[in-house]
Design brief:
mainly alpha; single chain; about 60% helix
């Protein structure tokens, strides 16, 4: 049988090498007496087929494997995908901020509310040091649960508020915040504020029950369940449950201060958040353009990822701080009206070792403002203001620590 190998085929010239053709005096190759170098030249690789091994047209398969990377080189395949890292980092940052706002700051909220409703107090606790001293005494006397009471009811109120807003928005043409257009449409804005006002009206009895759980002294307080807030709120609406005194204000008398405080808090916080976010994003854009004109070295990628998450957190932090500070006097009046006539006994915020009853006799919002101004002075509206400084100092510290951890993880990724 004749061989099908072409006459011009040989192991050296098939891949286009420019080796000289065989001469007459060329000795025949044998596997017995050939050297290792001759064997390496004799063994050839199959021809490259365009499209095989995901090669582009014109590329050739390497004859030898590439050397492994040195110890100093970074292996990109071992690093996690950037999208997955960004999602994980965003979830972690948001969870840390949510934990600080609702869990870590709860003792400050409890003591602040107790100071606001305590008209007997001679110490106004305008500085953080006096607040920390009395909070320590209360914890030492009543145990660590004394400043964590009512935390479950606060989550219930938040859930009722979100659920009520969603139901009202679905049943009415009132738009939610996500449905608002970027253009300033007065009709949509007014409709959205009406939606917020109706939401606060529905959540008002549950907010009142949650407020009583947070200010009630741990000494005479039973261990209520999480859903007791819902039961007390429904009982307040239906006129059932524990009998209250004649000084208890009706719910319709609490509608105006509750809606006023809630809507004003939302307006201030939303306005400050949008304003701060606008300036932060504008500064980040200017910094990014300046870096593009300069050198590309440095941790630009890490800074870009940080700029994608932290401006919103900083804007939310500044918005909550400004709203709480500006509306602190109105919140004091609101809490005193809600607690009046509920037979609530609170801790003595001057020392932290005794309990005091609430025996106010305000006839309404205007009368409460006049009585506080006459008996306690202008600073009586700011009782417990030092807890605001403690609360947001903790929040700022958690944000800074989270930013440091996130930047470290990104640099090591």
């Amino acid at each position: 049988m004749s061989s099908r190998r072409p006459d011009s085929f040989d192991g050296l010239g098939y891949r286009g090498r420019e080796d000289p053709p065989y001469a007459g005096g060329y000795s025949g190759r044998s596997f017995n007496n050939s050297s290792s170098i001759d064997l390496q030249h004799w063994v050839t690789t199959p021809p490259d087929i365009p499209g095989s091994r995901n090669l582009h047209f014109g590329d050739s398969t390497p004859q030898f494997e590439t050397a492994p990377p040195e110890a100093g080189e970074d292996v990109q395949s071992a690093a996690p995908p950037p999208d997955q890292l960004n999602r994980f980092a965003g979830f972690g940052i948001g969870l840390a901020s949510l934990f600080t706002e609702n869990v870590l700051a709860h003792p400050c909220i409890v003591f602040r509310r107790q100071c606001q409703v305590n008209y007997h107090a001679r110490c106004f606790h305008l500085s953080p040091l006096s607040c920390l001293n009395v909070m320590y005494n209360i914890t030492k006397t009543q145990g660590p649960k004394a400043l964590w009471k009512g935390m479950g009811s606060t989550f219930v109120v938040q859930g009722v508020t979100l659920g009520t807003e969603g139901i009202i928005s679905e049943c009415t043409p009132l738009p939610r915040q996500e449905e608002l257009s970027h253009k300033w449409n007065p009709k949509q804005i007014m409709g959205h504020l009406v939606l917020k006002g109706l939401t606060y009206v529905v959540a008002m009895p549950f907010y009142s029950a949650s407020l009583i759980e947070t200010v009630q002294s741990e000494i005479i307080r039973d261990n209520p369940g999480i859903l007791d807030c819902v039961k007390e709120g429904v009982g307040r609406v239906m006129g059932l449950g524990v009998p209250h005194s004649k000084r208890l204000l009706p719910l319709w008398g609490l509608v105006f201060p509750t809606v006023l405080h809630g809507v004003l808090h939302y307006i201030v916080s939303s306005g400050v958040q949008k304003l701060v976010l606008y300036f932060l994003q504008r500064r980040n854009r200017s910094d990014t353009s300046a870096k593009r004109l300069g050198s590309d070295s440095g941790p630009d990628t890490v800074q870009n990822m940080l700029d994608a998450y932290f401006p919103e957190l900083i804007a939310s932090f500044a918005a909550s701080l400004c709203a709480d500070v500006l509306l602190f006097p109105l919140e004091t009046v609101l809490h005193r009206l809600h607690v009046q006539g509920t037979r609530t006994i609170i801790d003595n915020t001057d020392l932290g070792f005794e309990v005091l009853p609430i025996n106010t006799q305000y006839e309404g919002m205007r009368d409460c403002i006049n009585v506080i101004r006459r008996d306690e002075g202008a600073m009586g509206f700011y009782k417990g203001f030092g807890t605001i400084l403690i609360q947001y100092s903790l929040h700022a510290a958690v944000l800074q620590i989270t930013k440091m951890i996130y930047s470290t993880l990104l640099q090591n990724a």
